[in-house]
TrEMBL record:
Annotated protein name in UniProt: Cell division ATP-binding protein FtsE
Short name of one Pfam family: ABC_tran
Membrane topology of the entry: Peripheral membrane protein
Cited SUPFAM superfamilies: P-loop containing nucleoside triphosphate hydrolases
Membrane-spanning intervals of the chain: none
Entry-linked PROSITE patterns: ABC_TRANSPORTER_1, ABC_TRANSPORTER_2
Limits of the ABC transporter domain: 2-228
Keywords: ATP-binding, Cell cycle, Cell division, Cell membrane, Membrane, Nucleotide-binding, Transport
Function according to Swiss-Prot or TrEMBL: Part of the ABC transporter FtsEX involved in cellular division.
GO BP term, pick one: cell division
Molecular function per GO: ATP binding; ATP hydrolysis activity; transmembrane transporter activity
A cellular component term, taken from the record's GO annotations: plasma membrane
Quaternary assembly: Homodimer. Forms a membrane-associated complex with FtsX.
Length: 228
């Protein structure tokens, strides 16, 4: 599903955030991306959905070579990739239903399909009864679940989560993790960047540790491995 080969990313200020990474991630895997602040995790994640472009090397996501993609092709790449952020990024003037539906409207999904699919994913994340609520009426955990619903509504093959539990308390964080587990069990590949030692150690998934722009560890059923 994801192949990176000899990938480097150097920013215009001269900072090299990714320094020769090679890695393969298979369809259906659940992978934690861990490491100290400033290690290159966010850049690693952004390279996956072409938010950033590699300085050198090859990145193939869902059989698409990201280095060769034209700008006009990037939206089509992202139809197969859902992205969830720490700060939710919900549109405040839209209801939960409208936030999720918007992701289908922009790809011109027929209206008759939108309602059915939106209610399906709101059921998956446990927010069917909050469909008409505004984001401001939701708790932090509910807002994150709404963001997850929006990210998976178009059935992406890959879900990228960048610190999705970073602003949440431990109990709410585990609800989010249960939701991600459910999504993963349906075959969606999940990459999650996190600083949560407790989540990583409890869930026992593949762990890729990035330090100084390189892969320091890549372990099946790994642990967080850093003091927090």
């Amino acid at each position: 599903m994801i192949v990176m080969k000899d990938v480097y990313k150097t920013y215009p200020n001269g900072v090299t955030a990714i320094n020769g990474i090679s890695v393969n991630i298979d369809q259906g895997e659940f992978v934690y991306i861990v490491g100290p602040s400033g290690a290159g995790k966010s850049t690693f994640i952004k390279l996956m959905y072409r938010e950033e472009k590699p300085t050198k090397g090859t990145i193939i996501v869902n059989n698409k070579n990201l280095s060769e993609l034209k700008e006009k092709e990037i939206p089509y790449l992202r139809r197969d990739i859902g992205v969830v952020f720490q700060d939710f990024k919900l549109l405040p003037k839209l209801t939960v239903y409208e936030n999720v539906a918007f992701a289908l409207e922009v790809i011109e999904e027929p209206p008759r399909n939108i309602r059915k699919r939106v209610m399906e994913v709101l059921d998956i994340v446990g927010l069917k009864n909050k469909a008409r609520s505004a984001p401001s009426e939701l708790s932090g955990g509910e807002q994150q679940r709404a963001a997850i619903a929006r990210a998976i509504v178009n059935r992406p093959k890959i879900l990228i989560a960048d610190e999705p539990t970073g602003n949440l308390d431990p109990e709410t964080s585990m609800v989010i993790m249960d939701t991600l587990e459910t999504i993963n069990s349906s075959g969606t590949t999940i990459l999650m960047a996190t600083h949560s030692k407790s989540i990583v150690n409890a869930m026992k998934k593949r762990v890729i540790a990035i330090e100084n722009g390189i892969i320091a560890r890549d372990e099946q059923r790994g642990e967080y491995g850093y003091e927090v």
